Amino acid sequence: MKRLVVAFICVMCACSIAFAQDKPKKKKETVTFYVEEMECKNCVKKVEKNIAFEKGVADLRCDLSNRTAKVTYNTSKTSPEKIAAAFKKIGMEAVVADGNEESKDKK
Ligand SMILES: [Cu+2]
After folding, report:
1. How many domains does the chain have?
2. Strands 68-74 and 94-99: what pairing?
3. pTM
4. pLDDT (tens place) for every residue of the chain, 107 residues total
5. What CATH number did the domain enclosing 36 receive?
6. Containing structural domain, residue 50
């Protein structure tokens, strides 16, 4: 009888571990866009006012001299394609210049 209880507890533990791993992972990735239309401070402001508030965007850094926008986003909520579409909405063409920088740095 005691064995059965121990076995039962083991099964419960295994289940809870499996459930814990099943939770959606909040993974963040960074992608750098090259935005040709971003040529002055007003453009940067426009990007910052719009893209930073897009769903899933966690961080946004614009570089006017390189015309790039570095976007950190939540992979479960958005994608580089969706972010590029958001740029298009404000009249800017965003091309992925470099994706997933963070994981590259770690290697
Ligand atoms: Cu401008």
Report:
1. 1
2. unpaired
3. 0.70
4. 667 777 766 676 675 666 666 555 679 999 999 999 999 999 999 999 999 999 999 999 999 999 999 999 999 999 999 999 999 999 999 999 986 655 444 44
5. 3.30.70.100
6. 28-106
